[in-house]
Amino acid sequence: MSLKLSIAERLGKDVFELSGQRHILVDARVCREKCREKPCLYFCPADLFKLNAEGDIVHDCDGCLECGTCRVGCPHEAVTWDYPEGGYGVSFRFG
Ligand code: SF4
Ligand code: SF4
């Protein structure tokens, strides 16, 4: 019998080594002034883009899967993206 895991359960198996440095920067001014739809609220598989009480986008690097979706998916080039510095970031655990 095979056991199917939910996406949250699969992501919960991953291990993150945090460097304390932000490897993704988001220009909140561009988000506020140019982006009405805010698709990052939907396309980040780790759900790291949120709206704060003022309606501004806030982004948390912790838990980033390094998929690069926000790098190519932001329609206003508000995301400055790099991999975490050597040795840090996500380690995927399959199974
Ligand atoms: S899609 Fe890009 S510009 Fe729009 S809110 Fe998200 S990060 Fe900002
Ligand atoms: S690289 Fe992927 S997981 Fe990381 S913040 Fe961007 S969309 Fe989310």
From TrEMBL:
GO terms for molecular function, please? iron ion binding; iron-sulfur cluster binding
Q: Which UniProt keywords apply?
A: Electron transport, Iron, Iron-sulfur, Metal-binding, Nitrogen fixation, Transport
Q: Where is the 4Fe-4S ferredoxin-type domain?
A: 22-54, 55-84
Give yes or no: UniProt keyword Transport.
yes
Keyword Transmembrane belongs to the record: no
Family listed = To ferredoxins from P.putida and C.tartarivorum, ferredoxin I from A.vinelandii, ferredoxin II from D.desulfuricans.
Primary role: Could be a 3Fe-4S cluster-containing protein.
Q: Which PANTHER family match?
A: FERREDOXIN-LIKE, FERREDOXIN-LIKE PROTEIN YDIT
Name this polypeptide is given: Ferredoxin-like protein
Instruction: Write down the species.
Output: Tectimicrobiota bacterium
Q: Which classification does the entry list for the species?
A: Bacteria, Pseudomonadati, Nitrospinota/Tectimicrobiota group, Candidatus Tectimicrobiota
